[in-house]
Amino acid sequence: MKFYQLAFCCLRRKKGKTLLLFLIFTLVGGMILGTSAILKTARETENSLREKAGAKILIEADTEEGLSAEEIETAALLDGVARVNRSAHHTAFPVDFPLLTKSESQEEENRRLTVFCYDDFENDSPFSEQRYRLVAGDYPAADTKGGAVVNFLPAQANGWEIGDEIGLQTEDGVSITVGIRGFFVSGSERKQGDDTPAADRLENLVFIDAGAYRRLFPGGGYDKAAVYAKDPEKLAALEVDLRKIFSDEAAMTTADALFRQMKAPLTQVVRVVGWMRALAFLAGASVVTILLCLWMRARKREIAVLIGIGSGRGRILCQAFLEAGIVFLSSLPGACLAGSLVTKVLKNIRSDVWAENGVWGAALEAADLLRFLGIGGVLAMMAVLISLLPVLRARPGDILSRTEG
Amino acid sequence: MNVWERAGRCVGRKPVKSLLLLLAVFVISLFLLSGMAAGNANVENQDKTRRAVGAGLLLEANETDRQKRLNEIAEKIGGEGSREGVTVERIDTIYGPQFMVSTDNAFETLRIDEVEKLAAVPGVGDYNITTAVTVVNPVNFTRIEDPETDQSRDLRGVSLIGSRDMAMDSNVLSGNVSIKEGRMVGREDADVCVVSEELAAVNGWQVGDRMTVNDRHDPEHSAVREAGIIGIYTVKEAMTPYMTGDTFRSENVIFTDLRFPEKAQGEESPLYEKAYFKVGDPEAYEEVKKRLQETDIEWERYDLIDNNGNYDTMSANFNELERMSRLLAGVSALVSFFVLFFLFVFWMKSRTPEIGIFLAMGVSKIEVVGQILCEAGMIAAAALLFSFAAAPKASAWAADRLVEQQVRQSQEEKEEDAGKVSFDFAESEQEVTGVSVRITGRMMLADGAAVFALTGFSVWAAGAVILRKSPQEILSEMS
Question: Residue B115 needs a FRET pair 20 to 30 A away by CA distance; which of A160, A166, B27, B310 works?
Fold first, then answer.
């Protein structure tokens, strides 16, 4: 009988033990694939948290023209950029509503208000710095087609409500209408001097969305741009790329305080998961090796008999390799099934990642399975070798002369 | 020979098999303990990350209520006079008599007793009080001015911001303001200040020097107040001015202790503008907020504002990490249990002929099961002892490796960036966060109980299958 025929016969004859070995291979394989999937998903979550940490590069214009829209758009297209928050301000004239002022000056700045714009009011704005706060309504969203936040005092004086519209006009005659989305307060309104011109008074500040600002001041530049990085670890490299886009006159500062505070413990979370995966692998490999050792030891007499009747040690080794290999390969679909149970749970945890990457997607890929197959196969062979070596090295006579057991 | 003696002899007669089984139980027990410890470590790390992100609540005066109180008091005054912090003055103008209403600090301030009451609410980790921006006249120093700006409308002063704890000021919490030299203002400090690096440079100040200011309304005659400079701060980007004018520009902002601004102004009472309550555990944010709102204070005077933007954005991800850690621990535990079970069943199956002989010799089935249970118990007990001894060392080694990795990575990043980009802020010393992978008594108890329970169950389950057969049937099966 050929060694492979013997292998199949042995597996068939010892159904119970074969099944146990198969189940253990399946469980260990499933655990290793499952923990790999968990580690991958944990890394995705870590990346998501890093992006949300708000590490940014602040670019401030040093010239009157400001940062151009084209430069900012080019910066926004860089690989490492998550988003850009632009800000600008300019004075304008009110259309059909009075300004609040205590100054009797006749100069033009006492007849103007100041318009500010932001892409995102909740960051990099006086609202995020708690200089001002909303007392009613909400900020205009980035896609709002003409929304404004105004001071609560002129709102009271003019009887404005949320949803009312006000007009703004530039000295070039460009005018727009914006809808009131919210009211803000500073708390310092009453501390201003009587001589403060209207354009500088807190009551006459109007915050509008970037789209409305572009319509009111076409061709105007921006005072600042906060460029948010996708990966806070690569902030320095991003700054180098931004330097190539903006002129030397633009001042750049990196700001990643929140990321620095949470970086260490966050990295540790993912490292601990990685450590667990390594442990799972080691534990699995150890248990499988021990089990194979137990199995081979139970077959000492059988092996001794085979050697005694002239079967070569190499042939016996091949038979053992084949037996372990058959059980290992048979356990793969089960391991994949066990791993897919874990990925199903992960799907509930991070549905957004799955939506981007499909069923196997972020958690398990064909490469992972091939890697598992390769490493698992090599380990199984090594385990068989380790377990069989003491038996093959002993003399058949010595083995057979020992008491059964 | 009793059951224990037979069990001991069987274990001793097959030392290699017994050792292999012991090793297997040892590995699984160690793996289980590591899984539990890793889960705990991750919970701690997630907590640290959450606390780093932080969440809090801001208390400010309600403008509508302020106006209502002002009107009520002004009505009570009825003409000219002062009452409850409100002063009404009659001024004769070309338009006729006008009544000017002004208020003092006592009217405008947040009430300190109510703030402290809120700070004592369970769940509030820490709190800060910030004064209103107070404009004072610089006496022994020069402020920063834009030479091209007309200063005739400017107040010609500098801005003082008093804090109970400067580290919890919003400009500091946002990461914009950091200390370049010296330290921040603390709770116990009095008559101290932290100045901007630009102001320090212009005036040649160092930590330890003294700054003097007085009331801007009467710079010639008002009392001069002195504050010791305990720190010099730097900013990532210029702070948004509170109002227009060089008085409020970022470089002219001076942080002081809580009571200094009122002294500098010559006032008798302070003007607290904001109070910030830091939530100890961001996960309990809503509960803490509810407890604060249920506190017995005059809530109509105040607005309580959510300040958990960052945490809110990230909380979903923190929950994901927590669930992943639990899933990992669960998968490890489940697989460990099953593997242990199958291992013992495998071990039992290899002893079928031996069991058949015992039964044929007249040993009762219960005694046979009992003997095998004793053997399994001895091996499991020895394995558990070894794993309990090894686990703390293994976890300490793992913790050291994890920290070492972190330090090495940080060093590599510094080397990579050196000479490439110059940092225009002082890079703060990054604290290496130790990871605590502790094996607790509770874990060992749980591990031991699980291993023994599984051992017993698997021996019983496998034994039941074998012992259903007669000795002849057992012995007639091929080995």
Answer: B310
For residue A89, which amino acid is it?
H
* Cα–Cα nearest to A24, from A334, A347, A388: A334
- Nearest chain A residue to B345 by CA: give it: A20
- Cβ-based neighbour number of residue A374 at 10 Å: 10
Of A89, A90, A88, A82, nearest to A57 (Cα)?
A82
User: Bridge partners of B89?
Assistant: B100
Choose among A58, A129, A185: nearest Cβ to B174. Answer: A129
Residues B352 and B373: their CA atoms lie apart, in Å, by 15
Q: How many CA atoms lie within 13 A of A64 on its CB side?
A: 0
Looking at CA atoms only, how far is residue B409 from chain A in angstroms? 11
| Token pair belonging to A111 | 């007849």
Tens-level pLDDT at each residue, chain B (479 residues): 777 888 888 888 888 888 888 888 888 888 888 877 777 777 777 777 777 777 899 999 998 899 899 989 988 888 888 888 888 888 777 767 777 888 888 899 999 999 999 999 999 999 999 999 999 999 999 999 988 887 877 889 999 999 999 999 999 988 889 999 999 999 999 999 999 999 999 999 999 999 999 999 898 999 999 999 999 999 988 898 888 889 999 999 999 999 999 999 888 899 999 999 999 888 889 999 999 999 999 999 999 998 877 777 777 887 777 787 788 878 888 888 888 888 887 887 777 778 888 888 888 888 888 888 888 888 889 999 998 888 877 777 766 776 666 666 666 656 554 444 333 333 333 344 455 667 788 888 888 888 888 888 888 877 777 777 777 777 776 44
Amino acid B317: pLDDT: 80
Q: How far, in whole angstroms, is CA B334 from its chain's centroid?
A: 32
Given B133, B170, B274, which is nearest A188 (Cβ)?
B133
* Contact in structure between B161 and B253 (CB atoms under 8 Å): yes
Q: Does residue A285 sit at the B interface (CB-CB below 8 Å)?
A: no
Alpha helices (H) along B96-215: 105-108, 112-119, 170-173, 197-203
Nearest Cα of chain A lies from the Cα of B189 at a distance, in angstroms, of 25
Which residue of B242, B247, B336, B395 to mutate against A (max A Cβ within 10 Å)? B242
Structure tokens at A385: 């070798």
Q: How far apart are alpha carbons B349 and A297 in whole angstroms?
A: 13
Q: How far is B112 from chain A (nearest CA, A)?
A: 18
Work out the angle at residue A67's Cα, subtended by the Cα atoms of residues A64 and A73, and round it to the nearest 5 degrees.
160
SS3 A163: coil
Q: Cβ contacts of residue A256 below 8 Å, gap of 6+?
A: A53, A54, A55, A56, A229, A232, A235, B175
- Residue A262 has its nearest CB partner, among B52, B305, B336, at B52
The Cα B240–Cα B248 span in angstroms is: 9
Question: Residue A166 is which amino acid?
Answer: I
> Is the pLDDT reported for residue A216 higher than 50?
yes
pLDDT at A178 exceeding the cut of 80? yes
Instruction: Give pLDDT, residue A113.
Output: 95
Question: Does the beta carbon of B417 lie under 8 angstroms from any beta carbon of chain A?
Answer: yes
Asked if the C-beta of A2 comes within 8 angstroms of chain B's C-beta atoms, the answer is no
Residues in B touching A224 (Cβ below 8 Å): 237
With tokens 């919890």, the residue in question is B168
How many Å separate Cα B66 from the centre of its chain? 36
DSSP H helices, A151-256, are 152-158, 210-216, 235-245
Q: Quick one: which of A279, A240, A308, A298 has its CA closest to A78?
A: A240
| DSSP one-letter string for B325-349 | HHHHHHHHHHHHHHHHHHHHHHHHH
Pick from B60, B433, B479: CB nearest A265: B433
Residues of chain B positioned with their CB less than 8 A from the CB of A404: 353, 479
Q: Do B435 and A283 touch (CB under 8 A)?
A: no
